[in-house]
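Exercise 3.2. Students should predict the tertiary structure of the chain below and write it as structure tokens, then compare their answer with the key that follows.

Predict this chain's 3D structure.
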Amino acid sequence: MQNNSCKPFKPLLLASSFSDKSFRYTFIAWWLAGAFIHTLAVYQYRQDITLALEDSLVSNILLAASCLLITNNMQYYLPRHEKYWYVLIISLGLSGCCLLLSKYLLFWLTGIHSDYALFLRQSTGLRFALDFLMIGCMAMFSLLWYTQQEQAQTAKRQSDAERLAREAELFKLRQQLQPHFLFNSLNSISALTGAQPEKARHMIQQLSDFLRGTLRKEEHAWVSLQEELDHLQLYLEIEKVRFGHRLQTSIQCSETACSQRLPALLLQPVVENAIKFGLYDTTEAVVISLEAIVQHKQLLITISNPFDPDTAAASTGTGFGLSSIQRRLFLLFARTDLLQTSAIGNHFITTLTIPQPA
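Answer key:
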């Protein structure tokens, strides 16, 4: 069996500037215009269209080839800030080679002792300057092009790495919440096994349904509020077996709010926190309230539970459940104001704000 893990790493190549259609058309138009101007200039000096065409054709073909060579070279080797002298040296070298080769070919075509040969010798300095200018401009353009390509690739890799890190942290947060609830449920089942075996079996079935639904939700990052409430109801049924008549719930959700979307498995930790601080320090019946509305294109979910200020610490801090939700919302939306807590009288209120896509 072939082991794919042993395949060598292939670095990503920068996209060639000629892969861009607009650049190809611009390059061709530029050289056609340059060849026309070159032909016109030589023709006006020599009054010989054949020589002018030969001069322009040879010179511009070699110049274009030099520009193609330098831009292709930078696709594989991109000089850094401390090596910009490389651009100067290669531009000077290619300009010199281009000039020598063009003069050799033109001497061969026209004859070394002709009047035109004198014109070639007299225009050597101007030809070299123009070649260096054109090749240098192409080198700088290529440098900018490939630098932008490299920066875009670096930004994409960084974005992908950050996205993977966020997804890994979100997954870790969800996995941390499940054992927290599971251990509590198993402890309750253990306590009910001897005294109330029927309730224990019923709770095991409910726990199985809840965990099965949780595994299915792991495949979906976002769900409708109605789906989330249906799943939350399974959790509440389990908790009602634990606490009996002491746990009562009130859920108010408009039809518009129920159709809004939110991250999956977001409400259960918040409701668990409300149950913890609402029921653990009292023997009386407690009502956990949940209200969802849509306001300014945002889904607002308010969860309220009573607490005893003398025995509970709900108003002074958030437990693991709320802190994990706050962290999760920050990773998803890059905002720290989407989870707010407050204590009004003997009620602790948690408010979730879920921005909706446009």
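Discussion points: Strands lie at 222-224, 247-253, 261-263, 286-295, 298-306, 339-344, 347-355. DSSP finds ten helices and seven strands in the chain.
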